[in-house]
């Protein structure tokens, strides 16, 4: 028997009543599946699925989020594949959709993320655990003050410099923790110049740990380029992972704001 679901891309997906061979194409969704107690049902993950640490050791690696190994996936014979519009690649997803039940999320804000968690609970018959995670995230996020305290630029890449701008989940997280994104009027992940950065006069530059692994040496780089704003290394997972990892994000944001206030 199977059930019909509509994913966040509005695709209709027929899923087994009890999925037993699940592949996750997204690191944050892999962590969610483990937190839902589905360890025994997971058969495949990506090489970037770093949480929990044992995921890559115990499960078959099916490639990366944008480089699927279709032969490996076929050998696993999945009865449910979980993917993400932004993190995966269209051609690969379309190829999988032709053969396997493939449920996609499309997340722009916290509400979308919470809806995704609840939906994965429904897909995998773990509604109670999923709803508990949603409630926990909501209660933790409620502790955040959205009062704007800092004007920031959030860097995700170097050479060329790229930032998280408007219409991104990262921008929504910045709003939640009371930070004004100086590039919110731009779209998605634009390239920016040092001249543009100086013109918008941010109070602080946030240098993310992913996808580009910014380090302490890069903080000095901006100073040498004549940028007067303070620089801060931040944990990119806290700003862009959209599953159960969000339970950790609120505490991280509170601690970050306290650090900024010093």
Automatic annotation (TrEMBL):
What's in the keyword line of the UniProt record? Signal
Q: Which Pfam families match?
A: Peripla_BP_2
The reply to whether Signal figures as a keyword in the UniProt entry is yes
Q: Where does the record place the Fe/B12 periplasmic-binding domain?
A: 21-262
Q: Which residues form a coiled coil?
A: none
Q: Does the keyword Signal apply?
A: yes
* Name by which UniProt lists this protein: Iron ABC transporter
From which organism does this entry originate? Answer: Endozoicomonas elysicola
